[in-house]
Fold:
Amino acid sequence: MSKLVLVPTPIGNLGDITLRAIEVLKQAEMVYCEDTRVTGKLLMHLGISKPLKPLHQNNEHLILEKTLSDISQRSLSVYCSDAGTPAISDPGFMLVRACIEKEIDVECLPGAAAFLPALVLSGLPCERFVFEGFLPQKKGRMTRLQELKEEPRTIIFYESPHRITKMLLQLVEVFGGDRKASLSRELSKKFEETFRGTLTVIAEVSAARELKGEMVVIVSGKER
Ligand code: SAM
Structure:
């Protein structure tokens, strides 16, 4: 019986790898990964030596069929993205979908993902939420925000540090400056911090502090 296991990896703090992740990585016959250097470094830290093969958005179309055939000839293959849970704003989705179509057993271990701690830390309602991930970089960006303007559930965005202030100003423009929000940066790392307030306040903090590092923005849904 062949199986593909998606293994989440730490989003900062190496201590966030799980015992099950280590066990599965030890047992894997092949580890597919977004970047062999990143996953190689993690495996070295864990004292695990495994063959690694790159599988990412630039080659997944080309090597998918061969990868599926190889996976079905082994008992245990693993997929890791660079950080967090594969397929969450990361490669992995195509591989999962193709394995399901080929009736290859797929498992995803629970583990690190940036949006969950950011959502909980926001202090905004988290019974119901929508994960938007990254907004389109150019075309369609403002249209996507307009579509979300009336969304009543808490909204989660990923953003890179060099676009964060611009993004927050766009959120102010579409949702209004009084909408409650939070920004969590460097989760699980030494300089982790979360800012809470209105979108206007958070945009001002971002501009004044020139925030660096990885960030998640949480925006309150529209109050009914
Ligand atoms: N697969 C990852 C996950 O499960 O969350 C997401 C990968 S995506 C390429 C990278 C984005 O996730 C960053 O731009 C940032 O928005 C968010 N992120 C990743 N690590 C983070 C951290 N330590 N603190 C805050 N945000 C983080």
Observations:
- Strands lie at 3-6, 30-33, 52-54, 76-80, 105-108, 129-134, 154-159, 180-185, 193-198, 215-219.
- The radius of gyration is 19 Å.
- The chain is about 35% helix and 20% strand.
- The mean pLDDT is 97.
